[in-house]
Automatic annotation (TrEMBL):
The keyword Chloroplast does not apply. InterPro entries: RelE/ParE_toxin, RelE/ParE_toxin_dom_sf, TA_system_RelE-like_toxin. SUPFAM superfamilies: RelE-like. Gene3D superfamilies: RelE-like (3.30.2310.20). Pfam families: ParE_toxin. It comes from Candidatus Brocadia sinica JPN1. Keywords: Toxin-antitoxin system. Belongs to the RelE toxin family. This is Plasmid stabilization system protein.
């Protein structure tokens, strides 16, 4: 089972999304976080379950889709590195450039 690590950016993304949802419904914000974490936990056993991110075309940069959100991660030898969570409408290439 691969260990899962989170970038600070990905942690911040999840917090910001949850805060946004919590403005309307704290219950759904908690539910959202729990379900995202469940999906990410599966990556430890099945790291290639996600598709290769089309914009990057690298075998080890993958994503899973959770509702309208893209969870982008990098597979490494013994670990999964969660890079970013973002809404599907976001230009992920531009987002990556501004975060680096």
């Amino acid at each position: 089972m691969g260990k899962i690590h989170w970038s600070k950016t990905a942690q911040r993304n999840l917090e910001e999304i949850a805060d946004y949802i919590a403005h309307d419904s704290p219950f759904y914000a908690i539910n959202f976080i729990e379900r995202v974490l469940q999906d990410i936990e599966k990556l430890g056993n099945f790291p290639k379950i996600g598709r290769i991110v089309p914009e990057f075309k690298k075998e080890n940069i993958r994503e899973i889709i959770f509702h309208n959100y893209r969870i982008v991660y990098k597979t490494e030898k013994d670990c999964i590195f969660i890079i970013s969570l973002c809404h599907g409408s976001i230009d992920i290439v531009r987002k990556a450039k501004t975060e680096n």
